[in-house]
Amino acid sequence: DSGVTQTPKHLITATGQRVTLRCSPRSGDLSVYWYQQSLDQGLQFLIQYYNGEERAKGNILERFSAQQFPDLHSELNLSSLELGDSALYFCASSRRQGMGTNEKLFFGSGTQLSVL
Amino acid sequence: AQRVTQPEKLLSVFKGAPVELKCNYSYSGSPELFWYVQYSRQRLQLLLRHISRESIKGFTADLNKGETSFHLKKPFAQEEDSAMYYCALSVPNAGNMLTFGGGTRLMVKP
Q1: How close B92 gets to chain A, by Cα (Å)?
Q2: Contact A107 B43 (CB under 8 A)
C-alpha cells in the first residue's frame, strides 16, 4: 500500500456528463500529480499541484480541471465527457515540489473511468 | 520537449532467459531516468532510478548518454517478473513531473 488513496475505484457514466475524481496523498506529501493511462496514449501527465497551487501542466484538456484543497487532497473534474476520455486516472504524491535526488513518487491504484 | 520511447509494446521470453527492455529518450540536458513497474491489478511502483545505480529484483539499468538510452536488463527472467514496465524521465526545471514512455508488457513463460 503506497498510502495514496483514490476514490472511486470505478466510475461508469455517459457522454456529456461531469465527474469528480478524488485523491488523498500520503501523509506529509505536499505534491499531487494526475496522470491519465489509456491504451492508445499510454501514461500522460495531466497536472501537478504543490501545497494548494498549480505547479505544472501537461496534456490536460480544457474540459478538465483540478484543484488541491487546504487538507492537501485533490480533485480532478472531468466535464462534457467523451468516449475517448475512458481511461485509468492515476494520482501520485511526493514529499516536495520537485523530483530531487531522493524524491519518490507514490501512485494510487487509480480510478477506472468508463464513458458509455 | 522531452520524449521517452519504448519501441516494444510486448516482450515475451521464457523463464531463465535474459531480458532487455529498451528505452530511449530525447532531451538536450541532463535528465533523471526511472523505471516503473505495474504488476497485474496493482499500482505503479518505482523499480529503480539511474542516479541510485542500484539493482532491484535482479534488474539493472545503465544510462548511456551517448545513445540517450536507459535499457532495463535482467540476466535470468522469472515468471513473477511478468508486468508492465514504464521508462520515465524527469527534467529538473520543468516542474519535475515525469514523462513516461508508452510501456512494454513483459511476459515470462514457464
Answers
A1: 7
A2: yes
* Angstrom distance (rounded) from CA B9 to CA B6: 7
* B-chain residue closest to A96, CA distance: B96
Chain B residues close to A100, C-beta within 8 Å: 96
Among B27, B38, B97, which would you mutate to test the A interface (most chain A Cβ atoms within 10 Å of its Cβ)? Answer: B97
Q: Note the pLDDT tens digit of each residue in A3-21.
A: 999 999 999 999 999 999 9
Can you read off the three cell numbers belonging to residue A57? 501542466
d(CA A78, CA A76): 7
pLDDT of residue A36: 94
Task: Answer yes or no: is pLDDT of B16 > 70.
Answer: yes
Question: Given this model, what pLDDT does residue A89 score?
Answer: 96
Percent of chain B with pLDDT over 90: 60
Helix (H, G, I), strand (E, B) or coil at B91: coil
Check: CB of residue B11 under 8 Å from CB of residue B18. no
A112 and B CB contact within 8 Å: no
| DSSP per position, B61-84 | E--BTTTTB--EEESS--GGG-EE
Quick: pLDDT tens for B33-50.
999 999 987 888 889 888
Give which of B53, B71, B65 is closest to B27, Cα–Cα.
B65
Distance CA B9, CA A81 (A): 28
